[in-house]
Amino acid sequence: MFLAYVPRRLIAPAIGLTSFLALMVVAVDLPANWEEVAFAGCWISVVAISLSVHLPNPPNGLTVLAIAANAGVWVGLVVAAAGRPLDLLFALPLMIAAIPAIYILRTPVRLGVKIMASWLAAVAILAGSLPFTPTAGYEPDHMQ
């Protein structure tokens, strides 16, 4: 949804940079113990990018490319740590989800895009904190 808020001339370079960095990071052989770091960093990045739609001014070129680079690195790390390189074929096309959001921003229901971005941030916070929350079955409880 972030791409819906950037200047149109920066959408293609942002998608290209994200894709390029994701492919480069996947090509690097990562240690198996990086999985938790990759997922935590990815969820933190999802929260930050989702909440960036609430900024008062549209992002400038450098900010857009920095956020695109951030997204590419974390997508690449998650796929490298927990998936197969071919999983990028499924992950990267999801960036085109910004296209409907671009058109929705031109309608009276444009607030819905910000609501969805806020919802995505909330889900990312929950999903990202779950591995750090002791739950039944993973930790000894008071009955043992």
Automatic annotation (TrEMBL):
Keywords, sorted A to Z: Membrane, Transmembrane, Transmembrane helix
Residues crossing the lipid bilayer are 37-55, 62-82, 88-105, 117-138
Q: What is the protein's name according to its record? A: Diguanylate cyclase
